[in-house]
């Protein structure tokens, strides 16, 4: 956790871009998991979805671009929408 007024930043090195990130949640739904497309690489932002004093305020890339925490949550929500597709009897296009 961090104190009020602090704005922790997670900085990624060369070769990692916003497009290479995937954002999901832990099974409990309390924490964000960020993966960068490289097998075995992941960062867990513990309890970041429960309390605004956990996690980071933004992630920054080596080219200077960044994503706010809210952007990471949006990425997670978009992925969950894709994963939660439901089919019906007969042929479906998902």
UniProtKB/TrEMBL annotation:
Residue ranges of every copy of the Haemolysin-type calcium binding-related domain listed in the record: 32-67
Domain of life (superkingdom): Bacteria
Record-linked Pfam families: HCBP_related
Name of this chain's protein: Putative Iron-regulated protein frpC
The organism of origin for this protein: Pseudomonas coronafaciens pv. striafaciens
